[in-house]
Design a protein that fits this description.
Layout (H helix, E strand, L loop, with lengths): L7 H27 L2 H4 L8 H41 L1
Helix pairs in contact: 1-3
């Protein structure tokens, strides 16, 4: 099928990793935006933690797009497999 760009296992793996990445980046973004002391008041802390928080939230949004794309690829692969099985049994 032309809509299937990646293999079914690759799309499932990408979905799982993207979910974890989105959760972690969302948590870091919220913590940086809130000014959590452990992240913003150390020697190695960034000069502008608010912009770091925004960057983390943007990256989490990109991961959400990957989740949507890879989930759609998984559905397309399942439909293609069903069509192949139906066509082979006829």
């Amino acid at each position: 099928m032309k809509l299937a760009l990646v293999s079914p296992l690759c799309s499932v793996c990408c979905t799982v990793f993207s979910v974890f990445g989105a959760i972690i980046l969302l948590a870091f973004g919220i913590m940086f935006k809130a000014g959590v002391h452990e992240l913003t008041m150390t020697k190695e802390s960034p000069d502008d933690p608010d912009s770091v928080g925004v960057s983390c939230l943007i990256a989490a949004g990109i991961y959400v797009l990957f989740i949507l794309f890879c989930s759609c690829q998984t559905v397309v692969a399942k439909k293609a497999k069903k069509q192949e099985e139906f066509g082979a049994s006829s």
